[in-house]
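Severity: low
Component: inverse-folding endpoint
Summary: output formatting inconsistent between runs
Steps to reproduce: submit the following structure tokens with default settings.
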């Protein structure tokens, strides 16, 4: 009986109208339509895999080493230690590989996450909201997908991206996408040296907060100022605005002068005329607008920087505002009040160990990732999520060799954590 070979699945008649059953008491595997013992088929020392390892608990049952063959339809396995204990009866998905025979009885090399330790979320911190947030439909995600949390609390508990937070207003749990910053969307394009950004303000935003990539902090919220550049009559419904483009005004903003209270803006020109038109027949009939007259533009979505922008945006680009926030992958369903509790959880566990047959293709695909291996051959790979939410991958080359023939599912690198490769 060889201790190992060079074939990683694909031996025998697996999935070709064949099926196998296991008697746990006698360690006998009975096949239907199988060709155990024939040339090119399963032999003593080979490892038989029962079910689909990339599936669920109901479709994967474990693996065992073949120690003897009675006929083409009957074999004996050496141990049931790496089997799930669930009935294995007439299953049509099974595989054979020639990995080292000791792998299936070594828990460090045959520990499956489905059968053993699944990833679970554990609450490790409870943090209270410092301010109230109304779930407003026109907030474009702000106030419903950005939660106010003090940086000091985030730092004290070591909250990281990828953790989860329970929605205080429901039973939903959201992934934390940003820690210490609010992810918002630009409502208007911003060019270099513009001082006005447009976005729905996250809860708790304050003068002095920084926008990522910009050289100076926020100087004011809710308004921006300019002056009249060309005089107009008292009944005019249009205003010439100095440096109009830099203010990034949009329809619906209001303009106020010493001549008349706030009037809504209907149209903002982009043809270089520096004109804004007021809604309908609205006008500043309080008097003639003289050159240099102060104008104040107001909107809840105006955010003014202390210096011109160095990072530019197109409409709908992401803008990150640093401050006392977490940005989450969902929307709150109700009011978050002062003192509302955030239950913060983190995924841990998910242990998985398996002996992979690694051919040149798999070695090349894994290069530069956490799954990178030193050699082709039979490689024991253990993956798990640590207490900080980090994917850990441990590899041990059990047999360095060339000529591995693969065909297994999973191939290397693969299930369960290949999507988290660095």
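Observed output (run 2 of 3):
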């Amino acid at each position: 009986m060889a201790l190992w070979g060079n074939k990683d699945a694909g031996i025998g008649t697996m999935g070709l109208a064949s099926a196998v059953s296991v008697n746990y008491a006698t360690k006998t595997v009975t096949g239907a339509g199988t060709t155990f013992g024939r040339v090119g088929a399963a032999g003593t020392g080979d490892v038989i895999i029962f079910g689909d390892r990339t599936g669920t608990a109901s479709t994967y049952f474990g693996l065992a080493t073949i120690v003897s063959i009675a006929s083409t339809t009957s074999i004996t396995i050496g141990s049931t230690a790496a089997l799930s204990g669930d009935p294995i009866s007439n299953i049509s998905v099974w595989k054979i590989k020639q990995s080292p025979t000791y792998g299936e009885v070594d828990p460090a090399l045959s520990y499956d996450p489905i059968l053993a330790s699944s990833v679970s979320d554990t609450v490790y911190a409870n943090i209270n909201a410092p301010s109230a947030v109304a779930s407003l439909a026109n907030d474009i995600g702000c106030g419903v997908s950005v939660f106010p949390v003090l940086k000091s609390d985030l730092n004290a508990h070591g909250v990281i991206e990828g953790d989860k937070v329970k929605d205080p207003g429901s039973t939903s749990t959201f992934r934390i996408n940003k820690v210490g910053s609010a992810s918002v969307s630009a409502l208007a394009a911003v060019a270099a040296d513009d001082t006005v950004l447009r976005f729905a303000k996250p809860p708790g935003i304050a003068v002095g907060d920084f926008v990522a990539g910009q050289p100076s902090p926020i100087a004011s919220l809710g308004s921006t100022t300019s002056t009249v550049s060309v005089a107009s009559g008292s009944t005019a419904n249009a205003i010439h605005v100095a440096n109009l483009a830099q203010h990034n005004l949009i329809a619906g903003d209001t303009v106020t002068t010493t001549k008349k209270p706030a009037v809504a803006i209907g149209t903002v020109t982009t043809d270089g005329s520096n004109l804004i038109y007021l809604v309908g027949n609205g006008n500043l009939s309080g008097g003639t607008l003289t050159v240099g007259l102060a104008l104040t533009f107001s909107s809840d979505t105006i955010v003014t920087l202390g210096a011109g922008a160095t990072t530019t945006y197109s409409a709908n680009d992401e803008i990150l505002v640093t401050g006392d926030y977490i940005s989450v992958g969902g929307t709150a369903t109700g009011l978050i009040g002062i003192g509302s509790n955030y239950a913060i959880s983190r995924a841990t566990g998910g242990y998985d160990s398996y002996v992979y047959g690694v051919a040149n293709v798999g070695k090349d695909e894994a290069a530069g990732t956490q799954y990178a291996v030193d050699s082709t051959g039979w490689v024991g790979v253990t993956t798990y999520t640590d207490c900080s939410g980090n994917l850990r991958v441990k590899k041990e080359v059990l047999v360095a060799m060339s000529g591995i023939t693969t065909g297994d599912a999973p191939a290397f690198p693969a299930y369960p954590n290949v999507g988290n490769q660095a």
